[in-house]
Amino acid sequence: MTIPKPILATALLFSGMSFAGSAHAQALSAPVIAHSDPESLFTSPDPKLHANKQVALKIVKELLEAGHWDRAHLYLTKEYIQHNPLAASGLDAVVHYFVNVAKVQPKPIADKMQTKVVAVQAEGDYVTVSFVRELPDPKDPSRKYTTTWFDMWRFKDGKADEHWDPATLPPAH
Questions:
Q1: What is the pLDDT of residue 112?
Q2: Three-state DSSP class for 141?
Q3: Looking at the domain assignment, is residue 154 inside a domain?
């Protein structure tokens, strides 16, 4: 039986094997680049998608960047379903997490978005925002590498009603 090349390549990638030595490894380490005008990505000619993207923009700028969790009720439903394992569902629980657990302090809301955004996709009731994430290289902590983080929201009646991201639980002590 012959394994199709795309399936074989995927299997090798996920098994930790290298395809072509250091040249391929270099290609995999290409930096993730932010869009030069991230706020322009939060628009759409479709009125529903535009409205949802604009709420996602406010969530990023006012809540995540500026820490104004007192404004969360404007953008999140009371039932807000949370799939991040570090925060419970419900508007009150999410606000509690950011204010009392993460100890986020409000700061002025910037005129222009500070977060490095790669892309924003919207379809139906969903908006996904992909971000640049910079982390220390585990082999050399003096160096950094980039990867991608995402937040995805499902909207209901003009507010985010459900949320996903790639967060995981921290290792046990």
A1: 94
A2: strand
A3: yes
Q: Look at 28-32, 67-71, 167-171 and tell me which has the smallest mean pLDDT.
A: 28-32
H/E element holding 77? strand 76-82
DSSP string, 75-123: TEEEEEEE--TTS-SSHHHHHHIIIIIS-PPP-PPPSS--S-EEEEEEE
Strand partners, 122: 127
At residue 108, does pLDDT exceed 50? Answer: yes
Question: What's the pLDDT score for residue 86?
Answer: 87
Give 164's strand partners: 152
Task: State how far the Cα of 56 lies from the Cα of 120, in Å rounded to an integer.
Answer: 9
Q: Please state whether the predicted TM-score (pTM) of the whole model is above 0.90.
A: no
Distance CA 52, CA 154 (A): 9
Total tally of structural domains belonging to the chain: 1
Give the CATH number, domain containing residue 148.
3.10.450.50
State the DSSP code for 97.
I
93, part of any domain: yes
Pairwise CA distance, residues 134 & 145, whole Å = 6
Per-residue pLDDT band at 141 (split at 50, 70, 90): confident
